[in-house]
Design goal:
The chain is mainly alpha-helical. It folds into two domains: about 60 residues; about 120 residues, Rossmann fold, CATH 3.40.50.1000. It has ten helices and five strands; from the N terminus they run αααααβαβαβαβαβα. The strands form two sheets. It has a three-stranded parallel beta sheet. Strands 1-2 form a two-stranded parallel sheet. β3, α8 and β4 form a beta-alpha-beta unit. α1 packs antiparallel against α2. It starts with 8 loop residues before the first helix and ends with a helix.
Length: about 210
């Protein structure tokens, strides 16, 4: 969801930068980038590994979240260009679609509803619904199960390294659509396809 459907990851990092400047937290952008694609528990552990067990993650996260929500226009996340068109195409083709996001399910549902995108997804799988975070395949395997579809028949759109690895570990074809993280040699090797933006996915599907 974040980084593929919503242009939210840049904003999240900018909010953390404000908090980091206030409290003197070093290398915050590097830390945030390391957390792209993983769930809240894994993110928390990443912060503790980098800043120590006494790091007041909950306090700083709440402050960053307050700044984040205050900056949204009408409380709605910015939707990436081409997303609505692609989702309408998928809907018209009667292709079942699921969200498999590391974000907590309740938040995922709310953000999709606020943006008017909830109707496009048959199933919603949040990070709190599985034990292991990406790059483990759990979240994508659960999505396939909920869609009653074999993993090999699923196509995943991902922007993060952890997400690409999770999709491949699940035995799915993964399209990487880079956002904040540029595709590396490893990503080119793992991904079924690397496309420049979400608009290119429709043409990809038409050729299948």
């Amino acid at each position: 969801m974040d980084g593929v459907i919503f242009d939210s990851e840049r904003l999240i990092i900018e909010c953390w930068k404000i908090v980091a400047k206030k409290y003197g937290i070093e290398d915050i952008e590097k830390t945030c980038r390391a957390c792209i694609g993983i769930n809240r528990q894994a993110t928390e552990q990443t912060f503790y590994r980098r800043y120590g067990e006494k790091f007041d993650y909950d306090k700083y996260r709440r402050e960053a979240a307050e700044i984040f929500h205050a900056s949204l226009k009408d409380g709605v996340l910015p939707v990436k260009k081409g997303v609505r068109e692609l989702l309408s195409f998928i809907e018209n083709k009667k292709i079942p679609a699921a969200i498999a996001s590391s974000t907590q399910t309740e938040i995922v549902v709310k953000e999709l509803e606020d943006a008017g995108l909830r109707k496009f997804f048959t199933k919603i799988i949040g990070g709190d619904m599985v034990k292991n975070s990406k790059p483990a395949p759990d979240i994508f395997l659960l999505a396939a199960k909920e869609l009653e579809t074999e993993p090999k028949d699923c196509i995943v759109a991902e922007d993060s390294y952890n997400g690409v690895k999770a999709a491949v570990n699940a035995g799915m074809r993964c399209i990487m659509i880079p956002d904040l993280l540029p595709p590396t040699e490893e990503m080119y090797a793992l991904a079924y396809k690397v496309l420049p933006d979400i608009s290119a996915v429709e043409e990809f599907i038409k050729k299948l």
